[in-house]
Amino acid sequence: MNISGLAKSYDGNTWAVEGLDLRIEPGEFVTILGPSGSGKTTALMMLAGFESPTRGEIELNGEPVAALPAYRRNIGMVFQSYALFPTMSVADNIAYPLKMRKVPRADRERLVNASLELVQLQAHRDKRPHQLSGGQQQRVALARATVFTPGLLLMDEPLGALDRKLRQTMQNEIASIHRTLGVTVVSVTHDQEEALSLSDRILIMADGKMQQLGTPAEIFERPRNAFVADFMGEANVIDVVAGRLAAGSVHVEGGTEGEYAAIRLADQVSVRPELVMLEAASDHDADAGVVTACTYQGSVVRYEVRLQSGASLVARASTGSEQQRFERGASVSVTVRAHSIVP
Ligand code: ADP
Ligand code: MG
């Protein structure tokens, strides 16, 4: 699928989506990730053909999507609210897209059974949606969107309505369905963890604009700007003034000449809290910072440290390791490895 210059304005004044460019490979799992109102649903609706682009092109298998009638687009869609038919049984819900495509009854039976097996709902085939849990309804929606072997599966916040524990389980199920069917997926979410764990590539959006496109590791470890760094987790964004970190009192360790050059050229850099290292400061350490807050978060402890410059940094230390714990008020020296500093 090839997306070029895709843009949408609802009011002719502001852009809900502005200039998406992206090539999606067959079988790829791409997640559009961004805060609420960033244009994710609008982008997905254009891919589905439910909204017409104000500008730009979408090509599916080399053909412009706009030229294809809905049934020939062969796209499966999972909505956040599931949109199941309440009066139909589970099996009939799943069979619906096959009926629409005039698939003969015998084939329908076979495909629905295979689909029920894929989402492990064989025992629930005759129930109505309201008799199912949220996770089970979600599985019906997934089965209905994939039973006709779509070339493309679109999902809008597929796990948004589920609680945390169930989201984890359903993430595994979606990954397994994707592997089994080999279908191309474009999914929309505002959940960083979901995007990181499921995607081959992530497209980050803010204010209708593409911020970064890359693999989960690229997005997380090499955020291209302060927005991405901050959105992907709490980031320390540090101004660079006259080629030096304005936060001061941070010991920068190791690193190549190239890494230092990149830092000097940047206006701002970011450092992940888990890469900020704290040590007890010696009595005469003029650069020492002070721990102003420490929060036990289970697997990690989160520290806020005020530096001599008045700037604050966040550090996160794993509780499983042998690392020293600090109390509020503790005097600490702060070290960051040069390669953890993202220009
Ligand atoms: P997201 O899914 O990331 O929350 P949306 O695509 O729903 O973002 O919305 C992006 C922007 O477009 C928002 O400012 C929203 O108010 C606006 N918008 C979305 N749908 C419509 C619509 N049908 N008519 C007018 N404006 C809309
Ligand atoms: Mg949305």
What do these coordinates show?
It contains 10 helices and 19 strands. β1 (2-8) and β2 (17-23) form a beta hairpin. With 343 residues, the chain is of the alpha/beta class. α3 (90-100) packs across α4. The longest helix is centred in the middle third of the chain and has 18 residues, at 164-181. The strands form 4 sheets. It has a 6-stranded mixed sheet, sandwiched between helices. It has 2 domains: 2-221, P-loop containing nucleotide triphosphate hydrolases (Rossmann fold), CATH 3.40.50.300; 234-340, Nucleic acid-binding proteins (OB fold (Dihydrolipoamide Acetyltransferase, E2P)), CATH 2.40.50.140. It has helices spanning 40-48, 70-73, 90-100, 105-118, 134-146, 164-181, 192-198, 216-221, 226-231, 257-265; strands at residues 2-8, 17-23, 29-33, 55-60, 63-64, 75-78, 152-156, 184-189, 201-206, 209-214, 236-241, 244-245, 250-253, 268-271, 277-280, 289-296, 300-306, 312-318, 331-337. Adenosine-5'-diphosphate binds next to α1. It holds the Pfam family TOBE_2. This is Spermidine/putrescine import ATP-binding protein PotA. Part of the ABC transporter complex PotABCD involved in spermidine/putrescine import. Responsible for energy coupling to the transport system.
- DSSP helical segment count: 10
Instruction: Quickly name the level 1 CATH class of the largest domain.
Output: Alpha Beta
Ligand species: adenosine-5'-diphosphate, magnesium ion
Counting structural domains, the number is 2
Count the strands? 19
* CATH homologous superfamily designation of the largest domain: P-loop containing nucleotide triphosphate hydrolases
Q: In angstroms, what is the radius of gyration?
A: 24 Å
- Neighbour order of strands in the largest sheet: 6-7-8-3-9-10
Shape annotation: elongated
CATH architecture annotation of the largest domain: 3-Layer(aba) Sandwich
Compressed to H and E, one letter per element, the order equals: EEEHEEHEHHHEHEHEEHHEEEHEEEEEE
Structural class by secondary-structure content: alpha/beta
Describe the main β-sheet briefly: 6 strands, mixed
> Which ranges are low-confidence, i.e. pLDDT below 50, for 5 or more consecutive residues?
none
At CATH level 3, the topology of the largest domain is: Rossmann fold
User: Average pLDDT, to the nearest integer?
Assistant: 91
Work out the strand percent. 25-35%
- Give the quaternary arrangement of the chains: single chain
Measured as a percent range, the helix fraction is 25-40%
